Each structure stands twice: as structure tokens, then as C-alpha cells.
Amino acid sequence: MTQEERLRIIDRSDYDPYARMALVYMLLDTNKRATHVGLTIGTGPSARDSGTEAAREMVVGSFNAVRSLLDRLKLPYSIHAAPTEPANGLWSFSLHCVRNDEDLTRITEMEIDDEATHQEYGLMYGYPRTAAEAFSTPDALNREEYLEWRRNNQDLSTFAGFRPSRAHLQEEMEFIRRRRALIRQKCPRLYAQLQGGTGPWLRYYALRLLGAA
Q: Domain segments of the chain: what residues?
């Protein structure tokens, strides 16, 4: 399967636009060796709009849909956690998609290595080295700074996928602009969906970035 064929499949897919965006980055950026796809939905009292069965259906449906998409793309992936039963009131799944068997071996090793760091994962995900090394340190934007940055850069922050650093913010924003241009050029339908910023995945995407810091 050619690169262009994969990009057309991704662009025409109705799966989560943020996961599809990450897949496009992985196909077009040799520094991005892996993509994480996952979803977690609560079933307890705090999740008033999502009962246990509704949460299960959404998570299991998403899990099956992304596996179907990756099979169509003929991309290898590693399932870290399948949605077989809720844990602590949460239905969830987690998997990593990669471009080749070598990267599949590496990401699988990292999944079972308790000493694998956020920085190592950040580099596998193709984040700028400056942002990966700053993650979970005082060098990264804190929660309040990150929220302000998103508010002030709504047209750009959607295309980031990582939390920027303080010292290298401008270079990292230029990195995001280049990635945004790739999406606009290669996957115009996906670009329009991301620009619209609608759908149930937008809230999950923002909370995931906030909670990961």
C-alpha cells in the first residue's frame, strides 16, 4: 500500500479526528515512530451523562473501529489494554500503532518497562526534543499557562498533541505550524474537521493533555 493510499483512507475515515491526525503525522514525519490511541470513560456518579452500558458501548466501539482502521492501513499495532471489563469505574482501552516491526518491538518493550520515561515516550511520539525533555518538569508550561496558551492560540493548539516548553515555545509553535500545513495539504477533509473543533472527542483530547502533565 502506498503512502498516498493510506492518507486517503485516513482522510475519508470517520474515526476520531485527533487520532487520525496523529496517524498522518506518523506517516509523514520519520521522527514520529509511534502513535498512542486510547479512550477512558467513567461509569460512576461523576459521569452523569454516561451510564455503564453507554460507556462500554462507546469504548468497545471505538476500540473495534480503530483496529479496523489500522488493519485497512496495514500498520502494525500493540494492544496495551483491551476493554474487557471496567476498572475502578472506568471503561478504557490503550494501544500503540507504529510504522514497522522494529518500532513495534521497541514500543512493546517500553510498555512493560517500569523505567521507561515520559521523555522516551515523547521522542517515540515525535514531539520536539525540547518539549519531550521538559515534560513533567518545571520547564514545561504548567496547567494555567497551558490553558492560557490554548485560549490564545486556538487555531494552532488543536494541531499540537503535546504540551510546549517555556524556553522553546516559539520554535515549538513553528513546529506545530509545519504539521498543520501537512494536514491541510494531505488531508483536507480531516483538516476541516479539526478546524471545526466539534464532536465528543474534543473534550477528551483537551483533558488528556491536561491530565498527562
A: 3-211
